[in-house]
Structures are given as C-alpha cells and as structure tokens.
C-alpha cells in the first residue's frame, strides 16, 4: 500500500474532510479491503475516502455526490493523485451507481439533526442537514445496503450518536447483515452544532452545557446471499 499522504484540493461549498472523514478513513484502512475489490463511496465530497479505497487495493472505485462542485473537486483530486476513481453526479438514492453491487461501500452522508426552518438540500447546508432526527439519508442507506453489497461485501458508515446508532444497527440487522460499531471518536461541536445547541437541547438530543459529540463508524457485512426485494 502506498503510504504517502493524499494531496487534496478543496473548493468553497464542498465538505472539507473533518473528524468524521478521518475516522472513516482509519476504519477503512483497518478493514482489510480485498485486493481488486469493487468499491463505492457515497457522498464523496473531496474524494478522500474513494481515493483511500483505491490506495488500499480496490480496483474499480466509483464515487457519487449530489454537488457538482464536489464532483469536479473529487475528479481533480483523483487525477492529482494519479488514482483511478470514477466520480458521478447524482443522488445516491437514485443514481446509476446504486444499480450495481460492490465489495466495499463507504458513506459519510449528511447526518446533523435539522430544525424545520433549516431543512433544505440547497447550497452548502446540504452537506450536513438531514431532517429533524438526522436520519433522512441514514435510513435509506440501511435499506439499500443488501442491494449494494456483493455476497461477502461490507459497508462502512459514519455518523454522530445524535442520530441513533442503535437504530442503524437494528435496521442493518433486520436487513440480514451483521453490524457492529468498529470505531469511535469524541470531538468538540463544530459551528453548525454550536449554533443549534439550544434547539438540540429542546429536542432532548443533547444535555445542557454539552459541547462535544461522539462519532461512530458502523460496519455491516453481508455473509452470503440475503433475501431482499432487489435481488434477481
């Protein structure tokens, strides 16, 4: 594996790698990516995780993002690092990429609980706003997991404990996958959570005076064929 640091161009309006990105990157590095694997990175942003998968030995790597700026940025970063990553524009829930199966799926979707007044998928905020419970994208990813994974594929999904990792584990389990938390990280609130602290307290999502959140990476494995509506 090439251990040199990836070079990253960053663009205004594109989610810049932060604590969740690096927690997911570390979990992927420890996950023993099969050599020659087919990989998909959902909500790729700068392309950091997709490029990491390529560095770790994935042969065919696809990435998808709903932001045109992110798509252009990720494509530029892949070329800058001389890595083969196919970056596509679209909503992962309906994209062409979702019609295939992969040995490895990674995802750092929007997951911050969002007041109705801020509930929009336009502009920069679509990189983090995820509905009142923060699960607008997480629930769909859990439902799609069986159709996205090969018979022995794995998914690595990062999000905050503010949006109920126990529900993620339950949904993945109900889908026939073996799921567990494989990485954790505590970090101070960023600007978005700090600005929403009063609302989060009112919703019972944080306690009075809380200034830190915990992030988790959940791994889901598909051990053989799983019966789901999308199998053919």
Describe the structure.
With 232 residues, the protein is of the alpha/beta class. Helix content is 28%, strand content 23%. Strands 3-2-1-4-5-7-6 form a seven-stranded mixed beta sheet. Helix 1 packs parallel to helix 2 (48-55). It starts with 18 loop residues before the first helix and ends in an 11-residue tail after the last strand. Residues 228-232 have low confidence and may be disordered.
Write the layout of secondary structure elements.
Layout: H1 19-29, E1 38-42, H2 48-55, E2 60-65, H3 68-80, E3 86-89, E4 102-107, H4 138-148, E5 149-160, H5 165-174, E6 178-188, H6 191-195, H7 197-202, E7 212-221
Helix pairs in contact: 1-2
Features:
232 residues, alpha/beta, seven-stranded mixed β-sheet, globular, disordered C terminus
Number of H- or I-type helical stretches = 7
Beta-strand portion reads 15-25%
Characterize the overall form: globular
Q: What integer value in Å does the Rg equal?
A: 17 Å
Instruction: Decide which structural class fits the backbone.
Output: alpha/beta
Give, in spatial order, the strands making up the sheet with the most strands: 3-2-1-4-5-7-6
Strand element count? 7
Provide a brief overview of the structure.
With 232 residues, this protein is of the alpha/beta class. It has helices spanning 19-29, 48-55, 68-80, 138-148, 165-174, 191-195, 197-202, and strands at 38-42, 60-65, 86-89, 102-107, 149-160, 178-188, 212-221. 43% of the residues are buried.
